[in-house]
Structures are given as C-alpha cells and as structure tokens.
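STRUCTURE:
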C-alpha cells in the first residue's frame, strides 16, 4: 500500500493550514489484525465505531458488507452531527446517542446506537481514545472487544486487513463467491499495480480532493482542488469508456472501486453544493453514473450507508444548520442509484 494513497503529507502542515488549506491529520493506531500477535483474526471478537456521514467510515462499512462480515464484526453508529457548544464534555465530537433528534427528520435516526463494545458506555468517540491515553477523536475505529483496545483507525488499512482475513473473521460468503478486493499472488501482480495506481489518483484528487475544495478558505487552493477533482473524474470516465468495463480494473470489483464509491455516492446530493464541487454532477458522466449504479446494486452496498446521515452531517454543520431537501430531478437520491438509464438523459 503506497503511503500517498493512505495519508496526506504533513510537511509544513501548520503553515499550510494558516494559509487556508485543509490538511488531513495522520491516524495513530496502526496494528495489523491477523499479523500482530495481540490481535489474532477471530470471528466475533472485533467491533467497528463509525459515522455514516463520514466517507472514510463508509469505506469500512462497505468492506464489512461486501465481505460478508456483518454478523461477525459488530458495529456502533454515531449521530451524524457533532456535539454542540453546550455539550457537558466537549463540542465538535462524534457522539453515540440514539435519542438525539435530527433537524432534517425531526426525530431520532434509527441507525444510531449507543456505545456497546467497551463496557464503559462511553458517549463520545474521544473517550474511547482517552481510555488508551490518546488525544485522537476520529472514526472509524476497529476495536478489540476481548482486550478492550483499539486495533486501528486508518480506514485504508482496515479495509485491507478485513479483506485479507475475511475467512478467519467469519465471513458468511463462500471463498469462491466473495469479492477479493486486493488479490495476492504472482498471477495478480498486474491487477495490484492497477489498484495501487488508481488508489493514489483517487485518494489525492477525489477522496481528499473533495475536502480540499470544500474546507479550504483560500480561493486559489480551492480552485486547484476543484480543477484536479473534475480532471480526475474525466479521466475515470474515459477509463471506463475505453472498453466499457464494468469496474475500474476490468471485470472485477476491487479495492479501487470501493475507495471511489463513497465520494461519488455523496457528490450529486451533497458535495455538489456543500463542497462547492458544482462543475458537474455524476449524472453528467454516463459511464461513471452506470458504474455508480452497478456498485450500488451489489449485495450489501445500499445497506452500508445512509444519505439522510450524510445530509444531516454535512449541512448540519453549516452556519444555520438548515439541510437542503434536494435534488429531486430527475429523481430523488438514493432512489436514482437504481436507475442507470438516467445517465442517457444527461448525454
């Protein structure tokens, strides 16, 4: 796994942030499940802490579902909006609170849970880290329920280890039917090279690029991220169009597809407005739209996330906490993702 596809360079990070650039931090827990003797691959032992609006968490929930690990890896889901300024512990933190009311729906969100893995009934993800002496506060977290320790909190590494250890972790899908997101062996070397190249391109320009555009406060930095984002969308459209391949590397759904999906899933209904990425919609790229619908139709993918959480989480943090209700043309989302033919209307 190349470093540039996992984390952003921290060189001159403070200076860059001061100039208005969004610079993503580095995750501190990097144990490898199944290789670290403290964390053997065992069914029923591990737990995920996630937030559905977070695209990095979405990678992990996607992997859990497409690999058939829903029954063997338990999961808690945070409320999509962070804690408020009057929180008794700390504002702007991920909260496990199933009773909290979403402004978008006027009621609690059914997917949200309490914290169930530590035995401490922590309310904030921050408290899970504090129990290990860490000042981090992010999700996702892969957690060991036996030792009560954090295994890892870097999404790229979590999905790689879930794939490598899917059988030992208790996958409900037979080996010959389960997607191999990053196939090993000499015979798959070319595919791994393609996946690595795509991961670099997608992480820098699309996954992190969306945040560079949406959360930067400098016009020139925003413009550069905006340009690179849409240049890369055009390149991926051309790649899919070359031989009308179903997935990015060919006939097989791989880690590259999994890592692209969370951003494109959010683009039309959220990022187009919230991240100021209004150059085009994915509907305007026929091959990418059909790819998006194709991935959405895979078993477990639709259940891995919620656009209600995404809308609430991204727009609920805006200055007035009002969440846009659209788009509804040509169809509401995520209903539109079941209609690959809509792309033809945008040709």
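SEQUENCE:
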């Amino acid at each position: 796994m190349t470093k540039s596809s996992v984390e952003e360079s921290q060189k001159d990070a403070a200076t860059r942030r001061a100039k208005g650039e969004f610079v993503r931090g580095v995750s501190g827990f990097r144990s490898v499940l199944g290789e670290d003797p403290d964390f053997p691959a065992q069914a029923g032992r591990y737990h995920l802490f996630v937030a559905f609006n977070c695209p990095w968490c979405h990678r992990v929930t996607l992997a859990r579902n497409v690999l058939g690990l829903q029954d063997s890896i338990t999961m808690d889901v945070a409320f999509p909006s962070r804690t408020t300024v009057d929180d008794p512990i700390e504002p702007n933190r991920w909260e496990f609170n199933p009773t909290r009311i979403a402004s978008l729906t006027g009621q609690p969100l059914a997917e949200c849970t309490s914290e169930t893995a530590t035995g401490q009934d922590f309310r904030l993800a921050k408290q899970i880290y504090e129990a290990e002496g860490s000042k981090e506060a992010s999700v996702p977290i892969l957690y060991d329920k036996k030792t009560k320790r954090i295994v890892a909190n870097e999404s790229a590494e979590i999905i790689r280890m879930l794939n490598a250890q899917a059988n030992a972790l208790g996958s409900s899908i037979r080996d010959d039917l389960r997607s191999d997101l990053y196939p090993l062996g000499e015979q798959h070397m070319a595919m791994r090279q393609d996946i690595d190249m795509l991961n670099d391109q997608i992480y820098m320009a699309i996954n992190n690029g969306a945040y560079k555009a949406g959360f930067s406060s400098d016009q020139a930095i925003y413009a550069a991220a905006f340009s690179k984002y849409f240049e890369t969308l055009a390149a991926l459209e051309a790649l899919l169009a070359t031989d009308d391949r179903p997935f990015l590397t060919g006939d097989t759904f791989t880690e590259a597809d999994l890592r692209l999906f969370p951003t494109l899933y959010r683009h039309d209904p959220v990022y187009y407005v919230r991240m100021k990425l209004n150059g085009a919609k994915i509907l305007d790229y026929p091959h990418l739209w059909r790819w998006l619908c194709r991935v959405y139709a895979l078993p477990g993918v639709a259940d891995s996330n919620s656009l209600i959480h995404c809308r609430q989480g991204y727009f609920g943090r805006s200055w007035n906490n009002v969440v846009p209700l659209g788009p509804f043309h040509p169809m509401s989302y995520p209903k539109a993702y079941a209609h690959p033919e809509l792309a033809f209307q945008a040709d």
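REMARK: The beta strands are 46-50, 74-77, 141-144, 149-152.
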